[in-house]
Design brief:
Length: 192
Amino acid sequence: MHRQIDILCVPILTFEQEYGRPRVNLLTGDLSGYVWGANVGWISLSNSQAQVRTTHLDPGPDSDGDGLPDWWQYREASDLDTFSADGDYDGDGSSDLEEYLADTDPRDPDCRLRLVAIERQAGNTSDLTWNVRPTRRYRLESTATVGDPDAWADVGLGELTPSEVQTIMSCQVVDSNASKHYRIRAIMPLRP
Ligand SMILES: [Ca+2]
Ligand SMILES: [Ca+2]
C-alpha cells in the first residue's frame, strides 16, 4: 500500500516540490523522488537497489512554543499569530492544535475530526463512523465515565489506517446496553 505525502510544503521549495516531488511513505518511512542540492544538483532518494528511509518525521521549529510548528502556521495564515494551541479560529469546537494534529482545515467550521454516526445494530453491536484524512491513523476509544480523562481506553481495534481515497471510516464494536461514550483520536504517523 502506498501512502505518501509531500515532505515539505513551504514556498521556497516550490521548485523542488514541483520537479523533484520528494515524498515519504507514511506507513514505511520510505522516501522517493528527488531533492535539490545547489552544488550537486538533483539527489535521488531511491532507485531499484536502495531507498532512503526515515524512522520519524520531525515537525520542525516552533518559534512561539505553542505546539503548532512554524511551517503549518505560515502555510495556514502566513504568520505565527492567527492560530494558537488553545484558539479555535473557525469556531467549530476543535482547537487549532487539534486541527493540526488531525490534519483538518482550521479555517473551515465544517471540517473537523468527529464521529459523524453511531448506529445501534442487532446483537449488542454498534457501527461508528468518522471522517478521515489519508495522512493520519486513528484510534477509537470508549469510556463509561466521560468526566474522567484517564478512563478512556482503546476499544480493542488498535490503530486504524484509512486508504488513500477514503474520506470516512466505519467500524463495528461490541456494545452492551450500558451507557458508553466514544471518541476518535488522530495519530500522526512517524511522529518522534
Ligand atoms: Ca508555533
Ligand atoms: Ca475546522
